[in-house]
Specification:
Layout: E1 8-12, H1 18-30, E2 33-36, H2 45-58, E3 75-83, E4 86-87, H3 89-96, E5 105-111, H4 118-128, E6 135-139, H5 144-167
Parallel strand pairs: 1-2, 1-3, 3-5, 5-6
Antiparallel strand pairs: 3-4
Helix pairs in contact: 1-5
The protein binds flavin mononucleotide.
């Protein structure tokens, strides 16, 4: 597929749909192409939940379906739910593969709201090996207006950084 120059990408994993919704909102705002990280391991409602918690705590990373090379995108935004205070394991699997990403990379997460996002971003950053240009963590049931404000701030940071690199 031929890609427009300056196109952004959003790559996310979502088990229950909240991160998928945020990914679509960001992709709309950035006019980005969207890619879902897929694994069958957590699909079952109850067993999947137990496995998710167990894997997250023990660091067992699931097999995921391949994602295309993202290096030529203007930016990549990585999204995952918070599991036991860390990024969900499918996103950890993706980062552990050391994907070839452009210089502008942001990270977003959704959570139940009962843990601060620091560990999510610090673990993702350690796996990725570079700081994120922007980060965003939204509780699953947060106020729509406030969410829109945070989304706008995140997207501005990504678009500005991408523009500055393109102009350089
Ligand atoms: C196994 C598991 C562990 C979770 N651990 C946390 C947590 O430590 N802190 C938190 O705020 N939310 C936690 N959550 C809630 C999810 O982060 C939240 O519901 C998120 O929006 C789900 O995203 P999704 O709908 O895209 O799967 C956990 C959810 C699961 C399934």
């Amino acid at each position: 597929m031929q890609k427009r120059s300056g196109t952004h990408a959003v790559v996310y994993y979502s088990r229950d749909g909240h991160t998928a919704r945020l990914a679509r909102q960001l992709a709309d705002k950035l006019d980005a192409e969207i890619f879902e990280i897929e694994t069958g391991r957590y699909r079952s409602k109850l067993l999947g939940y137990v496995r998710a918690g167990f894997d997250s705590l023990t660091g067992r990373l699931p097999k995921i379906m391949p994602i295309p090379n993202l290096k030529t995108y203007a930016s990549v935004s990585l999204g995952a739910p918070v599991w036991t205070s860390y990024p969900a394991t499918p996103m950890r699997s993706f980062l552990a593969q050391q994907p070839n990403l452009p210089p502008v990379v942001g990270m977003f997460a959704t959570c139940g709201g009962h843990s601060p996002p620091d560990k999510v971003f610090s673990m993702a950053r350690a796996l990725f090996g570079q700081p994120f240009i922007a980060t965003l963590c939204i509780p699953s049931f947060s106020d729509e207006k406030l969410t829109r404000v945070h989304i706008a701030a995140y997207c501005n940071a990504i678009a500005t950084a991408s523009g500055m690199l393109e102009a350089a």
